[in-house]
Design brief:
Radius of gyration: 30 Å
Low-confidence stretches: 242-248, 429-438
Order of helices and strands: EEHEEEHEHHHHHHEHEEHEHEEHHHH
CATH architecture of the largest domain: 3-Layer(aba) Sandwich
Strand order of the largest sheet: 3-4-5-2-1-6
CATH superfamily of the largest domain: P-loop containing nucleotide triphosphate hydrolases
Number of domains: 3
Largest sheet: 6 strands, mixed
Mean pLDDT: 84
Helix content: 40-55%
Distance between the termini: 55 Å
Shape: flat
Strand content: 15-25%
CATH class of the largest domain: Alpha Beta
């Protein structure tokens, strides 16, 4: 079996025709691969070079060489900034594939090597992926904070806050001749209590970080023919939902992403809420109720020309996260109501801009003065919840070995977020905090 090539290459820009295409090479053979094509440029200095293999000229390109470990992956890295024609890119990639020791990179392999070489931790790598996939300004801001290490710094601080009391207890077990003052054990309890409060505060964030990353769900709620599908089409400026005078036309859940005020929003159109004896429509209503329960904001639509009784069931869904919308206001005036409400007509466009402005203001209020860092992924949330559970199980009444095991569990759970799990941390703190072996 042939050993797996250690040097990887890939197109780093989107495939297809463009002004510039960047090919990245990383590994021990990167510099040698470039030397086969042209003279190696000075480290970290862009140089215009003619790339050729014998008599065949591939392109004139900007070439950059980053010696290890001063590169994105921590390895030797070469970047070729070619002209973005398909034939240019295809021929260059084909040539690199013929060189000994080189192979095409697997998805995410450059970032994986950066992690393995200590250039990124796991949370920063996830932030990089989110940065690449960011569609809105809010997603961009959040991804940059995570990619820059802001989240990792907080998680590492939490981990160190566990390791400190753990080191005291480990010292008590491993070096029983050393007298630990009673106030030290009291300090351990105080530290753990403060740490539980910090983690609880992080977890009690309303999943705002995940909502920014994945999109804030806004449900269009109302009776059949209240104008949900028409409003969906008006807000998205596309014919997404089928509009018909026949009640019960929408039976499945229809979702559409939208950028409102720099936030990713997912508009959800669904079946009208009413009693129905039709099996398929009833299933649609059940799905609608489930989606309504998951939505961050509900737009409750009231048809001003319909009988008020038809809205009884949907009005029962009103809560603090509901915005009342009177629809079809080109046909009749909305009633006077003490509740904050908007009047719209998707047919004429009346009130649509005001509705968008109101949603944007709601989003601004929801995401103003956010804690830092925000938990951005379920993996991070699960790890913190696991750590908190271990700290909750900790008790001075337990045998000291069990106390240490619970703290060790908490430290490792937090470390899973960044991937920084080092077994020597505890021992290092023991010897730095106590004069062992004096």
């Amino acid at each position: 079996m042939q050993p797996r090539a250690r040097t990887i290459y890939a197109l780093a820009t989107p495939p297809g025709r463009g002004g510039v295409a960047v090919i990245r090479i990383s590994g021990v053979e990167a510099a040698q691969a470039l030397s086969r094509l042209t003279t190696l440029p000075a480290p970290r200095m862009a140089a215009l070079r003619t790339l050729k293999n014998g008599e065949k000229i591939f392109d004139r390109a900007l070439c950059l060489y980053f010696p290890a470990p001063h590169s994105f992956t921590g390895e030797e890295v070469v970047e070729l900034q070619l002209h973005g024609g398909r034939a240019v890119v295809k021929s260059m990639l084909a040539y690199l594939g013929t060189l000994p020791g080189l192979r095409l990179a697997e998805p995410g392999e450059f970032a994986r090597r950066a992690f393995m070489n200590g250039k990124l931790d796991l949370a920063e790598a996830e932030g990089l992926a989110d940065l690449i996939n960011a569609e809105t300004e809010a997603q961009h801001r959040q991804a940059m904070r995570q990619f820059s290490g802001e989240n990792s710094a907080v998680y590492e601080s939490l981990r160190q806050s566990v390791i400190k009391p753990l080191s005291f207890l480990e010292a008590y077990i491993d070096f029983p001749d050393e007298d630990i003052p009673p106030q030290v054990l009291q300090e351990v309890e105080r530290d753990i209590s403060a740490l539980k409060a910090k983690i609880t505060q992080l977890l009690d964030d309303g999943a705002i970080g995940e909502q920014i990353r994945e999109g804030v769900e806004i449900a269009l709620v109302g009776a059949p023919n209240a104008g949900k599908s028409t409003l969906m089409n008006a807000l998205t400026k596309r014919d997404i939902s089928i509009v018909s005078a026949e009640a019960g036309t929408t039976r499945d859940v229809i979702e559409m992403p939208l950028d409102i005020g720099g936030y990713k929003v997912t508009l959800v159109d669904m079946a009208g809420i009413r009693d129905s004896h039709h099996e398929i429509e009833r299933q649609g209503i059940d799905r609608a109720r489930k989606k309504i329960g998951e939505a961050a904001l509900k737009l409750l639509l009231i048809d001003v020309v319909a009988n008020a009784e038809i809205h009884r069931e949907s009005l029962a869904l009103m809560d603090d996260y509901t915005l009342l919308i009177y629809t079809k206001c080109d046909l009749a005036h909305p009633p006077i109501t003490p509740s904050p409400a908007l009047a719209v007509s998707a047919e004429t466009g009346e009130g649509i801009e005001q509705l968008i402005t109101t949603i944007r203001q709601w989003l601004d209020e929801k995401f103003t003065a956010l804690p830092s860092p925000l938990i951005t992924q379920s993996r991070h949330r699960e790890a913190l919840a696991d750590a908190l559970a271990a700290l909750e199980r900790f008790s001075p009444e337990l045998p000291i070995e069990i106390q240490c095991e619970e703290l060790r569990h908490a430290a490792f759970a937090i470390a899973k977020i960044t991937g920084k799990i080092e077994v020597d941390d505890i021992l290092d703190l023991v010897f730095s905090s106590f004069c062992i072996g004096k």
